[in-house]
Write a structure and sequence with these properties.
The protein is of the alpha+beta class. It is built from five helices and seven strands, in the order ααββαβββββαα. It has a single domain, classed as Nuclear Transport Factor 2, Chain: A, CATH 3.10.450.50.
Amino acid sequence: MSQENVEIVKAATDAYNREDWDALFDAAAPGFELDFSRAVGPWHGIFGLDQARRVLSEISGGWESLRVEPHEFIEVGDVVVVPWTTYAKGRDGIELVSSVTNVWTIRGGAIERLSMYQDRQDALEAVGLSEQDAHADS
């Protein structure tokens, strides 16, 4: 498996943490989709490239600070599974810590889809892995 896909995801994650939306979507395919169909809250659905820029900008703009910390990068063919923790601080000092697992689909060096899962096991199952498989590959 190519380390190239992991490097693309790492670069996109770094761009997200800098709120550099141009860099984040630099490697996005023209038909890119942000799949938040499993999300809770106001940003629920599947969004195209332009909509995804707006959604992520709105999410980030609602916080005084927001950063994500990836825990691992699990390659499975054309996808990279990334469990991460989000650390957010509200304008009134309220802090939030949440964990999700993202599945990045990358083909030909372009990010085609980013799918968010509330549960790591659901994300692994979506790409045909068990927890044991994930530990064997990492």
